[in-house]
Amino acid sequence: MAGDVRQTVLDNCSYGLYIVTSHLDGRLNGQISDALMQVTAVPPRVAVSINKNELTHEFITKSRVFAVSILSKSADVRFIGLFGFRTGRDIDKLSQVQHKIGKTGCPLVTEHAVSVFEAQVRETVDLETHTAFIGDVLRGEIIEDTEVLTYAYYISEMKGKVSKHSPSYHRVIKPPAETMSGPGKYICNVCGYVYDPAVGDPDNGISPGNAFNDLPDKWVCPICGVGKNEFVKKQ
Ligand code: FE
Q: Quick check: 68 pLDDT over 90?
């Protein structure tokens, strides 16, 4: 079975969208994940796949604990971008969101969360690019009884992008055709968002016809939040 056919099959898997956090030596970090599932009921146990390049991977590997926030549909692309496209090696993500510290020491992100829980790692599985952490759920709580955010909703309705470190990254490597030609477009080096002057950025007060170079200096990527200096002209 060819790789692209296999991927088409896997595209039919459904996922949620989560923030997975951990801590190490007084530092906190977290990241977006869609690769999380419950694997047993008694005891309640989950598995999550984390890219080995991620700071969260290092924290979970050494601390042997992690926490999960199950996100609601109230989460916007900027909030998700903070945890999905920014690295904790450069910024303190947790300082920018509502959270509390759990009994494991992991931060529980309560902002845009339906529920949160903490887990103790009982086993790890080496998956070459990623590690699957299998954890026993220690405790958790409902934050808000509302609709959960799914991966499909994030992609189709919110027009969200996927980090190259995600296990599902290759599912969206084909960019929209309209972003592949024409002058004056600039692409975000961090998340792949393309600024098209013909479209502008109406959600952030930038009307169509505004050239990239005329954007205010304070303008940031609407997906991942980086400044204009992270953009390059699209060829
Ligand atoms: Fe970006």
A: yes
pTM score of the predicted model: 0.78
Which own/partner contact pairs does 4-9 have at CB distance under 8 Å and 24+ positions apart? 7/170, 7/171
Ligand 1 centroid to residue 85 C-alpha, Å? 8
Q: How far apart are the CA of 82 and the centre of ligand 1, in A?
A: 10
pLDDT at 175 over 70: no
In the block, residue with structure tokens 């026993």: 136
How many whole angstroms separate alpha carbon 166 and alpha carbon 99?
24
Residue 12 CA to residue 219 CA, distance in Å, equals 36
- Which one has a higher pLDDT value, 204 or 169? 204
Our measurement of the distance from residue 219's CA atom to the centroid of its chain's CA atoms, rounded to an integer in Å, reads 21
State the distance from the centre of ligand 1 to the C-alpha of 193, rounded, in angstroms: 5
Distance from the CA of 15 to the center of ligand 1, in angstroms?
A: 23
| Cβ(233)–Cβ(186) below 8 Å | yes
DSSP one-letter string for 159-207: -----TTSTTGGGG-S--GGGSSSTT-EEETTT--EE-TTT-BGGGTB-
